[in-house]
Design a protein that fits this description.
This protein is an alpha/beta fold. The chain is built from ten helices and ten strands. The structure holds 5'-O-[(R)-(carboxyoxy)(hydroxy)phosphoryl]adenosine and zinc ion (ZN).
Amino acid sequence: MKVLGIETSCDESGVALYDTDQGLRAHALHSQAALHREYGGVVPELASRDHIRRVLPLTRQVLAQADCPLEALDGIAYTAGPGLAGALLAGASVACGLARALGIPAIGVHHLEGHLLSPMLATPTPRFPFVALLVSGGHTQLMEVSGIGQYRLLGETVDDAAGEAFDKTAKLLGLGYPGGPALARLAERGVSGRFRLPRPMLGSGDFNFSFSGLKTAALLLAREHGADEAARADIARAFEEAVVEVLVEKSTAAMLATGLGQLVVAGGVGANRRLREALTQRARETGFEVFYPPIELCTDNGAMIAFAGAMRLARGVPRTGYGYTVLPRWD
Ligand code: KG4
Ligand code: ZN
């Protein structure tokens, strides 16, 4: 079964072709980072317009790369939410229009389900059931995953998402957009232990997170020492270490509580090198396996949407016609 996936929920246009027999056949991505940089964040109207410009050329590129004619597709998956309404509509209209013209199913996919399943695009591949740590710009969740569509929320952030905290802290340290990778680069030059930031909710006894206080604590340090370049790097280092420690401890607790043997990490913050190293080490010590998506599939992309759509199609999605709606907020 060949499924095209279209992702346009935020500031990346992603298109990919997933084949249930042959795996990921091709994927292409256009990042709008340069477009939004001068505004310090994503401008929704600019994002929608750029998706409209990019989606069809990316689709042609992917089909050509995979040497797959449009008519050979069995379904078209698109991100139906959550995300920016106009951006989502750009992808949904192309997907549903093409699907209607071809007479094949259009499959609306939950963006987070895409992230959640993305480690299954890597080898070695995790097997159900597993625990997923989902750490993106909009969400921080621990989830017990028993199968496609069978997700039990163990805990989540009560305020900012981990990626959002990275982005906001990067901004107050004077770093550009997107902030997470920039902060991680600055932290590489920082000294560990010069500043110590709190570990919010570390001992809360549940699987919930809180990151907004950490960002405020970083702000106070930045006000006091931020004029000094070396101190800024040390603050970045302290911030990254605090986030990583909380994520590692809570994930370990979730592994022990569920008794499961596999942890899957997904979402943009999953690209963070220090997080990967700390989790891999903890997994070794504690005796569980940890799986990551390929680095380029950690942040938003079409491959995860094509994959989630193919999994749903293979299980027989109910036909809903080609009328569509997007869900900017979707639980
Ligand atoms: O999953 P994603 O692409 O988009 C959402 O669905 O939110 O995640 C983007 C988030 C941003 O907050 C970005 O700063 C963060 O992931 N991020 C990182 C790194 N790469 C991306 N955060 C920390 N370290 C990184 N290397
Ligand atoms: Zn995402």
